[in-house]
Amino acid sequence: MKIGYPCINRSIGCSSGRTFRLASYSRERLEETLSKNLRCLDAILRFNLASDILFFRITSDLVPFASHPVCTAPWRETFSETFSEIGRFIREHDMRISMHPDQFVIINAKDPEIIDRSLAELRYHAAVLDALHLDATAKIQIHVGGIYGDRKASMERFCREYARLDESILRRLVIENDDPRYTLADCLAIHKETAIPVLFDSLHHQVNSSGETVTEAVELCSATWGPEDGIPMVDYSTQMPKARKGRHTESLDGAAFAQFLGETAPTDMDIMLEIKDKEKSALAAVEIARSDRRFLPR
DNA sequence: CGTAGTCAAGTCAGA
DNA sequence: TCTGACTTGACTACG
């Protein structure tokens, strides 16, 4: 079991997702920004290693405008050595990596232009993981997409579009149950049709439940991951007290996390903490997991 | 220098 | 009809 956090490290004073306005795009600006972003990604991974945080989600903003037509700079070639070095570090230390494209990636859209833009964005995410020379255990997680007034038809459209994806995307893609739309049961139904692995999100399941207990949910999801996919990934968060439903908490609730570990103990998984204070909660979670001999070795 | 307005992209609920 | 939320605020024009 590995524990991680997404995209941003608040302790080390750099960002691996620096960007700029589309209006100020230039090849020089892109290369300057990407160079800084990669240097910061390297710093974050070194920080993580020193803290036994071996799971990390790389920000989608690593290469600004990568899937936009304006971006014609050959960044894969220009930075191939840097990507390779960072990838070597990740593999040497047996780290787990994921990416999570944002809400604009919608495989089941009705508008073909939205599908095209989504495909370009997925190709970009796959290109980053490929440039790092990571195997198929480095995943790209997306949601099922829109409902468009007909859940069943929209799920079928997802399955149809999924079947047409390039292998470079297919081998990495997983779906996650979301908060306002597709439940865990919906995702498992899509898995039956497509064999796509299902990533369990604990807070979304709490807010938009299809009835399974956490123990059941994690077991069901785990069964959708094949050997080449690696250990199942799970997104873990709890509700921010008194806030809008589905809002992530500011900091880790240690007791709730310990209970989650207990409920899911039979299933090995890599846990992504979607909590606002990021690495701080990940550090606390590593200590909690360590204090229980069933989980992390000292 | 500080800060308010704005930023590539989609969906959908709620005001 | 518009705004906010979503994995995450941060860039930059303007005073």
From TrEMBL:
A single MF term (Gene Ontology): endonuclease activity
SUPFAM superfamilies reported for this sequence: Xylose isomerase-like
Pfam (any one): UvdE
InterPro entries linked: UvdE, Xyl_isomerase-like_sf
TM region(s), chain numbering: none
GO biological-process terms attached to the record: nucleotide-excision repair; response to UV
Key words, A-Z: DNA damage, DNA excision, DNA repair, Endonuclease, Hydrolase, Nuclease
Gene3D superfamilies to which the protein is assigned, alphabetical: Divalent-metal-dependent TIM barrel enzymes (3.20.20.150)
Cited NCBIfam families: uvde
Protein's recorded name: UV-damage endonuclease
Species whose genome carries this gene: Methanoculleus thermophilus
